């Protein structure tokens, strides 16, 4: 059996996030889509929700809205969100919890800060990632995978300086428990000062990192990136090098994402991601006609 030679991916560029309002008026930091970067196939959007500190009665979220043609992955760091949908599901996401929602043929969804945060105030900090579905899967039946934080595999390096939460894919000997339709890697690394890691990523996958907190160096060239910046890698290797300086004032916390590009036509409009304009028109018509359902008044 041939032994795969490890080659480190170089950095294609570092992107600053754009701050904007979403949902009912909450602020997100978004590396894409923006005017300069439409997507990172198969990823259509990454939003960093917060961190935001709300006073009593100030918290806002995303009231009833539709989705079709892709998956949403919500990962909470702090605070809590409550969700409900037109399929009759409802639940709560707290710190370190993950919700993987396959919108498929269409669903109406609501994501709001937990009632106690709405009432008393508090901190909200988390991410939402949109993962495109291939044309053959865009109209599948919606489904959920909800994984509590305690169920997300965690691994550590031998020297104890690197830890990782494995949401999708594999890292440091740990394998994710979530089933993905579009093959992706979704890892939350924490590097203590002096920590280093070389993470395998399948050749051909598009890959990028997002710095949650601190600063670090990326790729063989040691490109620097800071909090709120995204680092995009070239498809010129099968490993990604991450490191934190020995004299770093705080740990480096970052997301590392990689996915197999679909290389299919993309037509998108708001909460719909399809392959043609005609499919977008149909999605709008189906939503307006109530064919994606409504959230039952009995929920919540």
CATH topological fold name of the largest domain = Jelly Rolls
By CATH reckoning, the class of the largest domain would read Mainly Beta
The number of E-state strands comes to: 26
N/C terminus separation: 56 Å
- Work out the helicity level: under 10%
Class of secondary structure makeup: mainly beta
One letter per element, helices H and strands E, the order comes to EEEEEEEEEEHEEEEEEEEEEEEEEEEH
CATH superfamily of the largest domain: Jelly Rolls
Task: Describe the fold and architecture.
Helix content is 6%, strand content 50%. The mean pLDDT is 94. It has two helices and 26 strands. It is globular and about 55 Å long. It has two domains: 16-151 and 265-295, Jelly Rolls, CATH 2.60.120.10; 155-263, Jelly Rolls, CATH 2.60.120. The strands form six sheets. A seven-stranded antiparallel sheet has the order 1-22-19-24-17-14-13, with no helix packed on it. A seven-stranded antiparallel sheet has the order 2-3-4-11-6-9-12. Strands 5-10-7-8 form a four-stranded antiparallel sheet. Strand 15 (170-171) and strand 16 (174-175) form a beta hairpin.
């Amino acid at each position: 059996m041939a032994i795969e030679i490890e080659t480190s991916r170089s950095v294609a560029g570092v992107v600053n996030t754009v701050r904007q309002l979403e949902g009912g008026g909450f602020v997100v930091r978004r590396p894409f889509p923006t005017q300069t970067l439409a997507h990172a196939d198969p990823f259509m959007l990454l939003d960093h929700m917060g961190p935001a500190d709300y006073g009593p009665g100030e918290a806002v979220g995303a009231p009833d809205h539709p989705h079709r043609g892709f998956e949403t992955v919500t990962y909470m760091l702090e605070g809590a969100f409550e969700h409900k949908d037109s399929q009759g599901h409802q639940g709560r996401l707290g710190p370190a919890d993950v919700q993987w929602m396959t919108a498929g043929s269409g669903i109406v969804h609501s994501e709001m800060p937990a009632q106690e945060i709405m009432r008393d105030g508090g901190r909200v900090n988390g991410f939402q990632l949109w993962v495109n579905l291939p044309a053959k899967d865009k109209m599948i039946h919606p489904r959920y995978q909800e994984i509590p934080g305690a169920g997300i595999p965690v691994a550590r390096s031998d020297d104890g300086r690197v830890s990782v939460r494995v949401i999708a894919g594999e890292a440091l000997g740990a394998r994710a428990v979530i089933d993905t339709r579009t093959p992706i890697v979704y890892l939350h690394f924490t590097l203590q000062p002096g920590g280093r890691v070389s993470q395998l990523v399948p050749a051909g996958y598009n890959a990028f990192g997002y710095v949650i907190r601190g600063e670090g160096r990326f790729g063989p060239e040691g490109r620097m990136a800071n909090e709120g910046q995204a680092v995009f890698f070239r498809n010129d290797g099968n490993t990604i090098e991450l490191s934190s300086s020995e004299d770093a004032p705080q740990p480096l916390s970052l997301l590392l994402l990689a996915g197999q590009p679909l290389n299919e036509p993309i037509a998108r409009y708001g909460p719909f991601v399809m392959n043609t304009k005609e499919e977008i028109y149909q999605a709008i018509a189906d939503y307006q006609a109530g064919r994606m359902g409504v959230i039952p008044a009995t929920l919540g």
